[in-house]
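Predict structure. Chain length: 364.
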Amino acid sequence: MTTTAPEPTTTRAGVGLRLDGLRRSFGRTTALDGLDLDIAPGELVALLGPSGCGKTTALRIVAGFETADSGALLMDGEDVTPVPAHRRDIGMVFQSYSLFPNMTAAENVAYGLRVRKAAKAERAARAEELLDLVGLPGRGGHYPHQLSGGQQQRVALARALAIRPRVLLLDEPLSALDAKVRLQLREEIRRLQLELGITTLFVTHDQEEALSMADRVAVMRDGRLEQCAAPSELYERPATPFVAEFVGTMNRLPGVVRDKGTVTVLGRDLPVHGACPAAGTEVEVLLRPEGLKVGAEGDGGEPATVRVATFLGGTTRLHLTTDSGAEAKADLPSWEAGSLGVGARCVITPHENPVLVEEASTGD
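Prediction complete.
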């Protein structure tokens, strides 16, 4: 699958990045199988997918730490495939911080400039500027062991930005942090990325991080791109059943194709989005929990019983079993779900939105 980056809506300082037909194998294992991806100047794209899908290999090829078997990497239209890592002007932030323990925060930030033979005064000024930018004023003299995990990751981010890279790479930089710090830092990273206008490629296994931070999310599977789209489009209009189930929660409910483009599920005919088998085919219909309506008995729809009710704050998730034996999850506003405790009888119907379907497995 090839995706083209959207036209930028504002003037951006970053460079365009193109991954063109990247292939990489390790023995008999194919890590990348012809990956095509365009990233617009100043855009933040998240690579999301299960372990082993190739997202980290793709990032390492962009960084210059891995060499593709075939394909090309272009920055601003220039083929940088043969260019070594230290000459690509790329900043990278790792999951493990990777700070030098014998250097202060300021010395860590200034390290890349020191390697580039920048003057001492320039290094010190740039380090102070960036530590202020990432919210660590006055911490330049602290050593890594004197800083919290979140503060160390801020130092790592400042170090990556110190050389004024053309592209910023983020390799699951928040996964080692606790939930509260992770939320704060992801908001900070996004703010800085927008402020600096730097083209950014972000690898994560965390759906919430990808959907909340990225301009577009690229979902990968087995070394290929399944879909690359804005977070709302990815969630609301997934291109494939894999994307639909990988991003968010999804029900699989039995249905029958009524005619080409229409499926009957829970007593209602719905339009089919994407591939649709022939009329009469038994299928599984993919519906999100918020795509189901739950009403009182007699309202019409599929009769069901509440098996579990999970309070989630403003939302309550109901786990339901229909009288025909199908299992479903439905999300309701908590005020509306208050009367639907365990054992309550109700009826469920789908909202009239297009759905994805897959031909039902016949089993052995």
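Summary: Residues 226 and 240 are 7 Å apart (CA to CA).
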